[in-house]
Amino acid sequence: MQSTPTLTPIEYLEHQHRHLLEQIENLEKFKTQIERGAPVDYKAFRDEIIYLDRELHFHKRVEEQTIYPLLAVLTGEDGPASFVVLEHRRMWNMMNQLREWAEQTTNNTFNAHLSETLSAFINILRLHIEKENKILFPQVKRLLNRPDSQQIINAFHIRFAEQLNG
Question: Domain 9-165 is in which class?
Answer without folding.
Answer: mainly alpha
